[in-house]
Design brief:
alpha/beta; 393 residues; binds SN-glycerol-3-phosphate; ten-stranded mixed β-sheet; binds calcium ion
Length: 393
């Protein structure tokens, strides 16, 4: 089974010459309230850096976003305490060029910005990668301004318990996540990895707020060395990943793949290739020239049948492995709403269904890691899978 390639320490010079990076700290930054102490679940032992990428990975998708508002330090901390190998910051830019953690530039669904009358005139309608959004956008706020907002639960109807924590936490910077990672790694006696996704890089390039240079600078500031801890860079676009690879920035790269559409950078360049083209043998062969793995929508690994039940594995895992690419599908969520129809328990979309069984099917299909909103369930599913493998050996 392939694993992420062993790579040399980060070399950033080629990426740090292209842009001026905005201030990385602000007097408006204040300490985050700590997450409520959860039960600590031990993760598999791993040597710093190397071994953690040799294991089957549990990636805390946007943190433990099942239980805390996503992309907050509280969500990341809980993910680590639940045993996630990696925490997953999605990154966008502020007006002053600071990388902050949001799933998209538009922040009305995940912060209380609409309750701030001082920002009412920032509301705008914008088109990002062909999709029209109405709301408030990170690139129109300085870091100091963003820091006055507080995070809220994106899915309050499904995740009512998480709304308990609405209004408590700031939008974190990547720097703050890296500092949290270091602190938790010391406390938990294992190195927590950071699985970074730069969001809408072509869009931000167009605004003069390129994401890759501040990413490299933040990693330098965190004294990143892959022998100490793991950083993976992932993207739904291809050009930024290829630039990182070409620049000699030696971090593992993962090409995200959507079940529909095409990478925004290819669209912008007039390249007709779609995500469907990228999962053909020729597409995977091309990805393997610059990336170490793929992050497909989980339905591309095991498609649903017409009745909504879980089908049979597609050839994708074997085809990717044949190219030396690891496979980390997204996103595993335990609610009935997100499970295959034959994995539901009861009729309430917010209730948890047979999430362990769904994950079990994916480990058995040969995936090398999973993005999950509920790292506790991901860790337990991996334990069960490995236990069953040992028993059958
Ligand atoms: O990065 C893996 C997964 O997070 C991709 O989906 O949209 O949640 O960033 P998204
Ligand atoms: Ca992501």
């Amino acid at each position: 089974m392939p694993r992420l390639r062993s790579l040399a320490p980060l070399a950033v010079a080629a990426l740090t010459t292209a842009a001026v990076v905005g201030p990385l700290t602000s007097s408006a930054q204040v300490a985050e309230p700590a997450a409520a102490a959860p039960e600590v679940t031990a993760a598999p032992s791993a040597e710093p850096g190397e071994a953690i990428v040799d294991d089957l990975l549990v990636i805390g998708h946007r943190g433990a976003s099942e239980y805390r508002p996503e992309h907050t330090l509280a969500a990341y901390e809980l993910a680590a305490r639940m045993g996630a190998d990696f925490i997953e910051p999605d990154l966008v830019s502020t007006k002053d060029g600071v990388l902050v953690d949001r799933h998209e530039p538009e922040i009305s669904g995940t912060t209380d910005v609409a309750q701030h009358p001082e920002f009412a005139d920032r509301r705008a309608t914008k088109t990002i990668d062909g999709v029209v959004y109405d709301g408030w956008f990170t690139e129109d706020f300085t870091l100091a301004e963003l820091k006055t907002l507080r995070a809220v639960e994106r899915l309050p109807l499904l995740r009512q318990e998480s709304t308990t924590f609405d209004g408590l936490y700031q939008v974190p910077t990547l720097d703050e996540v890296l500092a949290l990672r270091a602190r938790l790694s010391r406390e938990l006696h294992r190195e927590i990895g950071v699985y970074v996704e730069t969001k809408h890089p072509t869009y931000f390039d167009g605004l003069g707020l390129s994401l890759e240079e501040p990413l490299a600078q933040d990693l330098v500031q965190a004294r990143f060395d892959r022998r100490r801890f793991s950083v993976v860079v992932q993207s739904f676009e291809t050009t930024n990943l290829r630039q990182i690879a070409d620049a000699g920035v030696d971090v593992p790269l993962v090409q995200l793949l959507s079940g529909a559409g095409a990478p925004a950078d290819l669209v912008a360049a007039g390249d007709p290739r779609t995500y469907a083209d990228l999962v053909t043998p020729a597409g995977l062969d091309w990805i393997a020239t610059y990336a170490d793995g793929i992050g497909p929508d989980k339905s591309m690994v095991i498609p649903l049948q017409a009745d909504g039940t879980l089908g049979r594995p597609s050839p994708l895992v074997d085809a990717a492995h044949a190219e030396g690419l690891v496979v980390h599908p997204y996103t595993f969520r335990p609610e009935n709403q997100f499970l295959p129809a034959d994995h539901d328990l009861g009729a309430d979309p917010a209730d948890f269904g047979r999430a362990l069984a769904e994950l079990q099917a994916f480990w058995e299909a040969g995936v090398d890691g999973v993005f999950t909103d509920a790292p506790d369930i991901g860790v337990e599913s991996r334990r069960l899978f490995l236990e069953a493998e040992d028993a059958s050996a």
